[in-house]
Amino acid sequence: MSDLEMAAAQAYLKELRLPAFARMLPETLREAEAQGRPFLEVLRVLLEGELSQRQINQGRRRVREARFPYTKGLEEFDFTANPNLKKPQILSLARGEYLAKRQNVILLGNSGTGKTHLAIALGREACRQGHRVRFYTASGLVNELLAAQAELSLTKLEKRWLKYELVIVDELGYIPFSKQGAELLFQFLSLRYERGSLLITTNLDFDRWIEVFGDAQMTTALLDRLTHRAVILVTNGESYRFRESMRVKESEAAG
Questions:
Q1: What does pTM read for this prediction?
Q2: Range of the domain at 177
């Protein structure tokens, strides 16, 4: 293929929105000619390259849409520091079967034991698999609900939530909510029941959730829905942040 023909082919491919195909074309054709590879094999390689790049780009868009507060991955998580968490179970969750089943995941434990790290890491894995994900802190979600109610746009917001295969609600129980805020949060969490997965991190045992919602009947009804077929992981142990702080202090004292 002449340089002119190559340029024309690449222009057509870009017009067809096949940028990875266009980028790979010159080198792939040179290798194919040198190795005598058949046309269909060359075509397959180029199409696989285009598909792979699209999946990577889609995953990046999903991660941006999710609005994670920072980047955390499973490869960074220190499982040896928290024997309560079994690595095979976390890696199984990372494969995303719970999303297909619309199951919930609840990470329950003391502050600083890696709950948010795991929530973000599992959320990013879901994004890479093509799922739509949204990350909230519990307080941020309640504030958004209250604002939507004030603007009479709550129904519109609820419809948007249902487009996400996974909604992460971080730090449930760290601060109390007003009666109105608690009722709206109950409404949101109930709306997700068997229609999409929730991943919740909390520092409160279930018998203390009434401190968040303020009503025993409402709390019981919500827990029935949330824990039905849910994966519940207890992360209790020494705080990662406390342990790291002590390590730094010991290092400074030794130095």
A1: 0.79
A2: 67-243
